[in-house]
Specification:
The chain has two domains: 134 residues, ATPase, nucleotide binding domain (Nucleotidyltransferase, domain 5, 2-Layer Sandwich); 85 residues, Nucleotidyltransferase, domain 5 (2-Layer Sandwich), CATH 3.30.420.40. The chain is elongated, with a radius of gyration of 17 Å. Helices cover 33% and strands 24% of the residues. With 236 residues, the protein is of the alpha/beta class. Strands 3-2-1-4-5 form a five-stranded mixed sheet, with helices on both faces. A five-stranded mixed sheet has the order 8-7-6-9-10. The longest helix is centred in the first third of the chain and has 18 residues.
């Protein structure tokens, strides 16, 4: 299976090409340029480097959030356009599941954390070594104190949300948790692709028309109009 994977939900934005789960190549997107300007050229260049066109692809995988509003819209729209036209199957990869999958041999469950700004994190807890299993809890939008209450000794924290919750976690658990903060623990397109390949092999693929992003909170303008979401809620 030849699979194209996109990660546009986080700062590790990029594209990756995999055959049967093995990485053939990947491209990172420039950090200071709009994803909408760089994503399609990057993926077309990656395919061309390997002597391939979009018609050669068997499937797609994309990180569906939570994460950057703009990045998610661009990534999901791009995959929907490419997959729909080619009638290919899609793996919708939760961003926090991909982040949890970057941890090698953790002692216990993994809490994947993304900085949601405003002193909050997007968080989900995953079983070690079982990336396709439903999360133990989450994904949720949490304040640091609420996140700390959900953790236990022996867990691993991973992601760029670690610095946001560090003080609250230390106050409750001291050094009884393992921490993989930035710059390690980044779920790039290769990770999304590997997890997507596993999901497709397990029969979890969807049609392009079913693909939808998980934003995690309202856009700032909408929050000003409608109010802020409860920060202990589970995302949908």
């Amino acid at each position: 299976m030849l699979l194209l994977a996109l990660e546009t939900a986080t700062d590790a934005a990029g594209v990756a090409l995999l055959r049967d789960g093995a990485l053939l190549g990947q491209r990172s997107l420039p950090a200071r340029r709009q994803t909408s300007e760089t994503l399609l050229p990057a993926l077309l260049e990656l395919l061309a480097e390997n002597g391939l066109g979009v018609e050669s692809l068997d499937a797609f995988a994309v990180s569906v959030g939570p994460g950057s509003f703009t990045g998610l819209r661009v990534g999901v729209a791009t995959v929907k356009g490419l997959a729909f036209g080619a009638e290919r199957c899609v793996a919708a990869v939760p961003t926090l599941a991909a982040l949890a999958a970057t941890c090698a041999a953790p002692r216990g469950p993994v809490a994947a954390l993304l900085d949601a700004r405003r002193g909050e994190v997007y968080a989900a807890a995953h079983r070690a070594g079982d990336p396709l299993a439903p999360p133990l809890w989450g994904p949720s939008l949490l304040r640091p104190e609420l996140l700390a209450q959900r953790l236990e000794a022996g867990w691993t924290l991973v992601g760029d949300g670690v610095p946001v919750v560090a003080d609250a976690v230390r106050a409750r658990l001291g050094d009884r948790v393992d921490v993989v903060g930035p710059p390690a623990g980044r779920a790039d397109a290769a990770v999304v692709g590997r997890l997507g390949a596993l999901a497709l092999a397990a029969g979890y693929g969807i049609a392009a028309a079913e693909l939808a992003p998980v934003y995690g909170r309202r856009a700032a303008a909408e929050e000003r109009r409608l109010g802020h979401f409860d920060t202990s809620r589970k995302l949908s």
